[in-house]
Amino acid sequence: MNSFSLELLSATEQRRVDGVTSFVGEDASGSFGILAGHTRTIAPLLFGLARFRRGNEQWQYLALPGGLLYFLDNHLQIFTRRFLIDADYARISALLQQQLLAEEQRLVETKESLARMEESMLRRLWELSRE
């Protein structure tokens, strides 16, 4: 059975899985699959679950807050801020809800805070220019 390698790269962790025979992910156009020998592919992955399998083993679920997928020469790389892997769909779904959604909320709050700071600085610069 033909296979490829999967390399997961995040800010804090790196993991390589050899012998992957199938990968299923999702981008803005919908779900897609990758098998060994697939053409060169680059895709922005959405927040949620992807999955992969080695041979006839059970599916492994991959939770991620979005990322970039790159496939070339039977080597699949996924670049993301964070990822979780588990064979139990229910368990990883719960982890996705708890951990990754909390992280996304913190990022939204940080972006809002930065926007408020920028607005405050611009207002202050405008006030200084009027004086």
From TrEMBL:
It comes from the Bacteria. This is ATP synthase epsilon chain. Pfam families: ATP-synt_DE_N. It comes from Microbulbifer pacificus. It is found in: Endomembrane system. InterPro entries: ATP_synth_F1_dsu/esu, ATP_synth_F1_dsu/esu_N, ATPsynth_dsu/esu_N. Residues 4-82 form the ATP synthase F1 complex delta/epsilon subunit N-terminal domain. Its main location: membrane. The keyword Oxidoreductase does not apply. Belongs to the ATPase epsilon chain family. GO terms for cellular component: endomembrane system; proton-transporting ATP synthase complex. One of its GO terms (molecular function) is proton-transporting ATP synthase activity, rotational mechanism. Produces ATP from ADP in the presence of a proton gradient across the membrane. It is a peripheral membrane protein. Keywords: ATP synthesis, CF(1), Ion transport, Membrane, Transport.
